[in-house]
Design brief:
With 111 residues, the protein is mostly beta strands. The chain has a four-stranded antiparallel beta sheet with strand order 4-3-6-7. A three-stranded antiparallel beta sheet has the order 1-2-5, with no helix packed on it. The longest helix has 9 residues.
């Protein structure tokens, strides 16, 4: 487990304390990962105001980055991004999503 966060209760408590500022000038929305915590697959919903490339990066609490997922020319409106977590060790992770010049960060727990 990463930094002792293998207990789902600890992850949920930390995740619930993270504020979500969902809209910026770009009107780029990102949901929380669901289900959360998860063990194999999770999803994130994004809503874009305009067509953009979207990059999803996963970073553990130690700062280790995993290979990014790049989605080219994502159309305006709602899209769902899949996260494959079966190869991730148990722990707490930051999910960094970039679209255009904007960046959003969410947290997720793998158990």
């Amino acid at each position: 487990a990463v930094s002792g966060y293998s207990n789902a209760g600890n992850c949920i408590q930390l995740i619930n304390k993270i504020p979500e500022n969902n809209f910026t000038a770009f009107n780029f929305f990102v949901s929380s990962a669901y289900p959360n915590p998860f063990s194999k697959k999770a999803s994130l919903d994004i809503v874009l105001e305009e067509t953009s490339d979207v990059v999803l990066e996963i970073v553990n609490v130690m700062g280790q980055k995993f290979p990014p997922l790049v989605y080219k020319n994502v159309r305006p409106g709602k899209s769902t991004l899949a996260i494959e977590g079966s190869s991730l060790p148990n722990g707490l992770y930051f999910v960094v999503i970039r679209a255009g010049e904007e960046t959003k960060t969410r947290m997720m727990c793998v158990e």
